[in-house]
Specification:
CATH architecture of the largest domain: Alpha-Beta Barrel
Bound molecules: ligand C2E, magnesium ion
Structural class: alpha+beta
Helix content: 40-55%
Radius of gyration: 60 Å
Distance between the termini: 220 Å
CATH class of the largest domain: Alpha Beta
Oligomer: single chain
Shape: rod-shaped
């Protein structure tokens, strides 16, 4: 259309229309701009959300290369977004965990279902962190299949988890540690709940009670105790719950336990109460004290019993004696105390040894027990000393004495039977001293002393016998005690002297003398051996005394030898029983010979039968050894002892000495004359000389001479006198 054709009005209209259109366009533009702005804002919001999301996002293509990543992912991995793009996602996972990723990917592709896993990723700076990976399959805008991966840093959670695991482990360790301690405790530890049901039971408890853990858990603890403790225990538990003490006080510390096999044993128990979750729990600590009890019993046994024989010792005897005396006072019945000592026990010890001696003591103990009634006691005081305590004897003293004597005789009989001591057949006898008592009027020590005195009486009476105590004996014993003290002092002070009694031959010519000891006592005057030899034997003083006698006699013999008139005189020395029984007897004689340089042939030792018979073989050995040195032997007091021809033949004797008891009545008592004649004949048939002692008259001498006696000794020729007074016999014929 041209302008010629267009009217101004039309043009005006068109212009208006254009303006309107223009305005509309501008408005549309405005709208478009606004929408654009909104779009921009939305996109910006989207990117903010996408990029600054608290998790990392990555889009990964089929080859595993990263196509996009948000800022969070870039921050997590420490790489700029541009550096992430085209990077294989597997390279960001630590080597060890890559398999986890491939597995996830495989499962995702196969199932099409979203998958997730936990693995460690590596940031650009080399630090690793725990990541949670969630992946879904999707399509890219270009329709290619991609993976959308959401990753979040779960290091903090993992750390917390690991700490938890570690603390659980440490708890487990410390529980294990506690259990190990409990299991290694020597004491049983048992915990029970408020109902008394067992919650725990350590190894020692298992060992003590014999139950396996499974057999006791959940069961009532009373199963571990026998009746009646069982019911008692439950009561106490209840009581403790109502009163609520921290430990069960009423329970005895030592009670009985019962093992699975039913056996019962003593145990110590301490229980304490603690609370767990407001519920009381009881912890019991248990110890098997069987051994402890046995040890206590053993200690008691050692304190009151003799270990060798198992008999009560002195302590227990005193205790029983005390009771016996109290009973006697109550009932009016007598009791008796027997003191028993084995004859020649020392000799057995010396010859066969202590082991054999011990066996004898044990066998004697058994025999003694067999000889008494149930209520009586047999005790060993030590050494070879035993005491028998009889109770409940008659109320009449003579009957009580008779009853006691019967028991004593039974003991003599029983102990007289031969013993078998480790293959040695041995005969032993006891000497028994008895004191019968009633009421409590005497001190116990006194009673024991009296029985002891009576026992020495029995010994003096020739052993293997019984003696009752009487007060006269006691008086003598007291005097003895006094003498014993004096003897110690006077031996040191040289108050003993030797007197010598001349011995003559058939012609009345002095041929020697017998040394006889005397004690020059300050108060009692010159004492004869009868007053002290036995006491010296009993106290052991005999050994130093005998040594002194031997040395002094040998010295005197040396003096005689140095003078022509007495040079051929012999010296007879009496030997005591204990001196001869000692193992060193031969040595002491040999030493005395050596020290004085005397001719052994001039020394004659006087022995008695009693000291030879107990151990003939040993006696012979000793005598032969001395015989070989030249020493002679004379058998003293012959005719008073055992006089058995069989051993007499074996003994290396030189002389028999007819006892003075036969000599005394030889003129008036025909049988003594017969004995004297027999002794002479016997001696001569054995090749021995025979000497008569105690010859007091010429008539006795004449008769004995006629009977064939070779030598004589007695008051008729001269009394025992000091050496200085022997001069008057020199060169004399006393007949
Ligand atoms: P024994 O060995 O038989 O000694 C003889 C005893 O008779 C002596 O008594 C002596 O003094 C005494 N006697 C001497 N002649 C006569 C007499 O004619 N008539 C009477 N009735 N008696 C006479 P003694 O000295 O009292 O000795 C007694 C016993 O003591 C001795 O008997 C002896 O067994 C022992 N004994 C003496 N001295 C010792 C010694 O040194 N050591 C040892 N172990 N014992 C000794
Ligand atoms: Mg003599
Ligand atoms: Mg004699």
């Amino acid at each position: 259309m041209s302008s010629k054709d267009t009217s101004p009005e039309d043009a005006q209209l068109m212009l208006h229309a254009l303006r309107v259109h223009q305005i509309e366009l501008e408005m549309q533009n405005e709208e478009l701009r606004r929408v654009q702005l909104e779009l921009d804002a939305a996109r910006a919001r989207y990117f903010d959300l996408y990029d600054l999301a608290p998790v990392g996002y990555c889009t990964v293509d089929e080859a595993g290369l990263i196509l996009h990543a948000n800022l969070t992912a870039s921050a997590l991995l420490g790489l700029a977004r541009s550096e992430l793009v085209k990077r294989p996602i597997s390279r960001l996972i630590i080597q060890a965990d890559q398999d986890i990723y491939y597995l996830l990917r495989k499962q995702l592709l196969e199932s099409g279902e979203p998958q997730s896993c936990e693995l460690r990723m590596m940031a650009h700076d080399g630090t690793s962190f725990w990541a949670h990976l969630a992946a879904t399959a999707a399509q890219s805008s270009a329709d290619a299949p991609v993976l959308r991966v959401v990753l979040s840093d779960i290091s903090a959670r993992k750390r917390a988890e690991q700490q938890l695991i570690a603390s659980e482990e440490s708890l487990r360790q410390s529980a294990l540690h506690s259990q190990t301690i409990l299991d290694n405790m020597a004491d049983g530890v048992i915990t029970i709940d408020a109902q008394g049901l067992i919650e725990s039971f350590n190894k020692a408890a298992s060992t003590i009670f014999g139950y396996r853990l499974e057999a006791v858990l959940g069961r009532n603890v009373a199963m571990l105790m026998p009746e009646p403790v069982r019911s008692h225990y439950n009561d106490l538990l209840q009581l403790s719950q109502s009163t609520g003490p921290a430990s069960i006080v009423g329970l005895p510390r030592e009670i009985q336990g019962q093992r699975e096999d039913g056996s019962i044993f003593p145990m110590s128990l301490s229980v304490s109460r603690i609370s767990r979750a407001r519920q009381p729990i009881y912890i019991g600590i248990v110890r098997d004290i069987t051994q402890h009890r046995q040890d206590e019993e053993e200690i008691r046994r050692l304190a009151f019993y003799d270990p060798l024989t198992g008999l009560p010792n002195r302590r227990l005897l005193i205790d029983r004696l005390k009771q016996a005396m109290a009973t006697s006072r109550r009932t009016g019945q007598h009791g008796a105390l027997m003191f028993l000592d084995l004859d020649h026990f020392k000799r057995l010890n010396d010859t066969l040894g202590h082991a054999v001696g011990d066996v004898l003591l044990q066998q004697v103990a058994i025999r003694l027990k067999d000889c008494v009634r149930e209520g009586d006691s047999v005790a060993r005081l030590g050494g070879d000393e035993f005491v028998v305590l009889l109770e409940g004897l008659s109320i009449h003293d003579h009957e009580a004495a008779a009853q006691t004597e019967a028991v004593a005789n039974k003991i003599l009989d029983a102990s007289g039977q031969p013993y078998d001591l480790l293959g040695h057949t041995y005969s032993s006898t006891p000497s028994i001293g008895i004191v019968v008592f009633m009421e409590e009027h005497e001190a116990m020590d006194e009673l024991l002393k009296k029985a002891d005195v009576a026992m020495y009486q029995a010994k003096s009476a020739g052993r293997n016998t019984v003696r009752f105590y009487d007060s006269a004996t006691q008086a003598a014993a007291s005097a003895h005690a006094e003498l014993e003290k004096d003897m110690h002092r006077d031996l040191a002070d040289n108050k003993f002297v030797l007197h010598y009694q001349i011995q003559v031959d058939a012609d009345g010519t002095p041929v020697g003398a017998e040394a006889l000891v005397r004690w020059n006592h300050a108060r009692l005057g010159m004492l004869a051996p009868a007053h002290f030899i036995r006491l010296a034997e009993a106290t052991g003083m005999i050994l130093p005394l005998s040594q002194w006698i031997l040395d002094t006699a040998c010295a005197e013999l040396a003096t005689w030898a140095s003078q022509p008139q007495t040079a051929r005189w012999t010296m007879a020395v009496n030997v005591s029983e204990s001196q001869f029984s000692r193992a060193d007897f031969v040595t002491t004689v040999a030493t005395a010979l050596q020290n004085t340089g005397i001719n052994a042939r001039l020394l004659s030792l006087e022995l008695t039968e009693r000291m030879l018979v107990d151990d003939v073989a040993n006696s012979i050995t000793k005598m032969n050894t001395l015989k070989a040195l030249g020493v002679g032997f004379s058998l003293d007091d012959f005719g008073t002892g055992y006089s058995s021809l069989s051993y007499l033949k074996q003994l290396p004797l030189d002389q028999l000495k007819i006892d003075q008891s036969f000599v005394r009545d030889v003129l008036t008592n025909p049988s003594n004359a017969v004995i004297a004649r027999t002794v002479v004949a016997l001696g001569h048939s054995l090749g021995l000389t025979v000497i008569a002692e105690g010859v007091e008259t010429a008539a006795q001498c004449a008769l004995l001479s006629e009977l064939g006696c070779d030598a004589f000794q007695g008051l008729h020729f001269g009394p025992p006198a000091p050496a200085s007074e022997l001069a008057r016999f020199i060169g004399k014929n006393t007949a």
